[in-house]
Amino acid sequence: MQLNPEEAIKIVQKEVSGLDEHGRIAILARLKWFQQARPNQIIEENHDWSTCGVMAGRGFGKTRMGAEWAWWQAWSNPESYGAIIAPTRYDAQSVCIEGPAGILNTMPRELLLSFNKSDLKLTLVNGSTIQAFSASEPDRLRGPQHHWAWCDELAAWEDPQEVWDMLQFGMRLGDHPQVIWTTTPRPVPLV
Q: Could you give the CA distance from residue 189 to residue 191 in angstroms, rounded to a whole number?
């Protein structure tokens, strides 16, 4: 049975009406992303995978995919710890967090409790945190533990294998930690 759009909207409105204000805002933002995204930009939400890679050319929407996935992981897993790793601190801040397709421009502002710009740390109202790291400083990944991570422009990292290995040691929170990586094609062994 196929629903017409009006019936589908009524079902969604009924389901959303049982949520608190933040929950409604999050679900509606997620639905908006699903309406805008191409099918190959949607990352599966099941927990059968631990690593998901997206390699595509410029303009595909990799950053938007990563940002949408990251904030949704933080929101749908309250009190979780997530990591963003980009080639440099500048990339983490200006692309992944503050950029036009970054988290601050994809996640509803009502879900954000605070953003510590000096630490590149976002805290959501549900207690989840998103911490950004520079791949040029792999030792900063010694110690922190995460439920999930988004690795942006993996093929542009200075020493991708070292950073990847350091990240993997910290992927030990929750029942099934997940990592996505997004990158423009480049022939590096890790990719």
A: 5
Strands 148-152 and 129-134: unpaired
Global pTM exceeds 0.85: yes
* C-alpha–C-alpha distance, residues 5 and 112, integer Å: 31
Whether the CB-CB separation of 128 and 75 falls below 8 Å is answered with: yes
Query: Beta strands 112-116 and 148-152: pairing type?
Result: unpaired
CB distance 191 to 154 below 8 Å: yes
101-122: per-residue pLDDT in tens? 999 999 999 999 999 999 999 9
Q: Which helix (H) or strand (E) holds 89?
A: helix 89-91
DSSP-derived secondary structure for 155-175: GGSSSHHHHHHHHHHH--SSS
